[in-house]
Amino acid sequence: xxxxxxxxxxxxxxxxxxxxxxxxxxxxxxxxxxxxxxxxxxxxxxxxxxxxxxxxxxxxxxxxxxxxxxxxxxxxxxxxxxxxxxxxxxxxxxxxxxxxxxxxxxxxxxxxxxxxxxxxxxxxxxxxxxxxxxxxxxxxxxxxxxxxxxxxxxxxxxxxxxxxxxxxxxxxxxxxxxxxxxxxxxxxxxxxxxxxxxxxxxxxxxxxxxxxxxxxxxxxxxxxxxxxxxxxxx
Length: 234
Fold this sequence. Notes:
Layout: H1 13-27, H2 32-49, H3 56-73, H4 75-81, H5 92-103, H6 112-125, H7 139-166, H8 173-187, H9 205-223
Helix pairs in contact: 1-2, 1-7, 2-8, 2-9, 3-4, 3-7, 3-9, 6-7, 7-8
């Protein structure tokens, strides 16, 4: 929790506006409108400076590719094809970490820990506590939950310290982050047809471009909340 050095470009005008909007949340009593404005500006700033270099699309594509293989070959054959037979004997935290390692493999960017945490939270929320349950995963539900988690966790990583500095009652922090999540869930858009394109090879350029567009559109759907008048920017 807290802002990581280098995570936010401090001289970028969009990030300066985002920081200002986060500061305004306190002045306005953390109203839904003030939180929504901060989220919108954050989405705009992150999309402009960080999203293209993030591995979030790659990891989402890894999971969607696994779901696609299950639909094409069945769970047992997919496990065999991907060399994951031993996973069936794992239990508890060992299984949990092994699955996260598998889907987030090859990631070494600055936001990778957030991606990993978001994926773990997604599996928890979707009750995927057993390896076999991956064959029940719905593509759209996964993307919606994963991207919501990633956006909320990224927002929190950037601005937890700034929010906490302004709070007289620190116990209110969790309530504020819950409101952030609620607003993102209510505004974020994920392609309704995702379950109809699960035959795509998500490791191909076509698959990569598709997932990238879905992620890009999710951030784009939040930007509108950050659109304000010149007067309100002062």
